[in-house]
């Protein structure tokens, strides 16, 4: 798991009191998007996979979850090329990385 702590520190400084809300929103939104990614893979929906992975990739990158964003980039490409067997193979990695990112964010910024 890799978080860009310098980026998160900058965001925290700029956003001040709204930073905790940003972290909470990211956790909620990324959890929803991950469910959409899983659903698209299960349904064999390459377009839906590309769209969901792209959206989750952007928000993960913005929050400094660089490793997660890299895996999502691979998932997005798999969706773009309708390579669902590759996407299936990446699901364990994206789920595990998402879990670790969310747990780290909770521990560092939400006190849980």
From TrEMBL:
Gene3D superfamilies found in the cross-reference section: HPT domain (1.20.120.160)
Residue positions, PTM Phosphohistidine: 54
All residue ranges annotated as the HPt domain in the record: 15-108
Keywords for this protein: Kinase, Phosphoprotein, Transferase, Two-component regulatory system
Example GO biological process: phosphorelay signal transduction system
GO molecular function ontology, one term from the record: protein kinase activity
Pfam families assigned to the protein according to its UniProt record, in alphabetical order: Hpt
Protein name: Histidine kinase
Organism: Proteobacteria bacterium 228
Source species taxonomy: Bacteria, Pseudomonadati, Pseudomonadota
């Amino acid at each position: 798991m890799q978080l860009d702590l310098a980026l998160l520190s900058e965001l925290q400084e700029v956003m001040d009191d709204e930073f905790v809300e940003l972290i909470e929103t990211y956790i909620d939104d990324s959890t929803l998007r991950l469910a959409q990614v899983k659903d698209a893979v299960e349904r064999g929906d390459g377009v839906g996979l590309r769209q969901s992975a792209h959206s989750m990739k952007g928000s993960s990158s913005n929050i400094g979850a660089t490793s997660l964003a890299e895996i999502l980039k691979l998932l997005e490409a798999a969706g773009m090329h309708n390579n669902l067997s590759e996407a299936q193979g990446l699901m364990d990695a994206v789920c595990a990385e998402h879990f670790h990112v969310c747990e780290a964010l909770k521990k560092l910024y939400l006190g849980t």
